[in-house]
Amino acid sequence: MLERIKTFLIRNFERVFIFVVLVSIALINYYIPYKIAFLNFFYIPILLAAYYLGKRNTLYGAVLCIFIAFIFAYRAPESFFPGNTKFDVFFNISTWACFLMLTGIILGAVQERLLSEYKKIEKLNMDLDQNEKELRKANESLLEN
Fold this sequence. Notes:
Elements: H1 2-11, H2 13-31, H3 35-38, H4 43-52, H5 55-75, H6 86-144
Helix pairs in contact: 2-4, 2-5, 4-5, 4-6
């Protein structure tokens, strides 16, 4: 039983990871009174889903995030109104800034991975061209004999 769960988690790591992030976001939004600032946190599972799961699953994830946000807004609409104190303003801006940096880090990591894959493909293409040249030479030498 435990081995089956481990195999499932390894095989579906991306989906499980995004689900865990989404559930943790929902829990954070449920317990944190500053809902407006934490709405930006929903970008993270969507970015991860876009990278790992493709457009269709990303759309499903976005709809789920919107649904969760609407549930929170319906249950406690007053928690979506920003406060009037300096602390409220500072906290909302600080939280937004942290999510902005986190999004930048995630997209930077994605860009680095794509660049690495591009370089790997470029090297494979060069090796393929070299092998093609060697095969042509070998073919020509066989035809001459």
